[in-house]
Design goal:
By secondary structure, this protein is α+β, with helices and mostly antiparallel strands. It is built from 2 helices and 4 strands; from the N terminus they run ββββαα. This is Excalibur calcium-binding domain-containing protein.
Length: 111
């Protein structure tokens, strides 16, 4: 509700000031439920997408590799450096943990 000040019409008559409903006729309290549900849905999907992206960052930072199809191999699984190097060369993305310093030589501690 709002107060409308008095005014003169075009024909010269004066309209006394009065209280009036200044909301539009299309406004309805029934629409507030839809707006709240929509905002909750957006917030929920944002939270879900953020948690999935942080999980993938944690997986890519882990030493075992981010690809789940790769078998886990360590330098202890090989008896010679040549065997480790051959495995590393077969798929460098899968076996990147065999090259600790990133110079392209796998399991340098092995002879």
């Amino acid at each position: 509700m709002g107060y409308r000040k008095g005014y003169y019409r075009k024909d010269g008559t004066y309209v006394q000031g009065h209280y009036t409903n200044n909301r539009s006729k299309y406004y309805s309290n029934k629409n507030n439920g839809c707006v709240i549900l929509t905002l909750l849905f957006i917030a929920f999907t944002t939270i879900i997408s953020c948690s999935e992206s942080s999980d993938s960052v944690e997986n890519s930072n882990s030493g075992s590799g981010s690809n789940s199809n790769c078998p886990t191999k360590t330098c202890g699984d090989f008896s010679t450096q040549a065997q480790a190097q051959a495995t590393y060369d077969s798929n460098r993305k899968c076996y990147k943990n065999l090259d600790a310093d990133g110079d392209g030589k796998a399991c340098e501690s092995l002879k």
